[in-house]
Backbone:
């Protein structure tokens, strides 16, 4: 990825540099919830704006791609409870 705008703000490099922290926060949020892994709750995944898809939101399913994207040093810190 690159920022092709001359004199650009460097948004692309900031996004790439910060991505591991975003993944870690997302993994922690999904892994450390008290709701069942086959469902979701308002504390983690649900909101008023996505209520039409609440039945499809499952924290177990959300965890899997996050775990695959995260470096192993991050993903090993979290397991689904």
Residues:
């Amino acid at each position: 990825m690159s920022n092709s705008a001359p004199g650009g703000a460097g948004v692309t490099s900031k996004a790439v540099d910060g991505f591991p922290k975003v993944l870690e926060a997302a993994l922690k949020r999904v892994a450390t919830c008290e709701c069942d892994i086959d469902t979701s709750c308002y504390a983690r995944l649900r909101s008023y704006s996505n209520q039409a898809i609440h039945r499809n939101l499952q924290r177990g399913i959300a965890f899997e791609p996050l775990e695959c994207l995260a470096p192993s040093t991050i993903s090993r810190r979290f397991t689904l409870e």
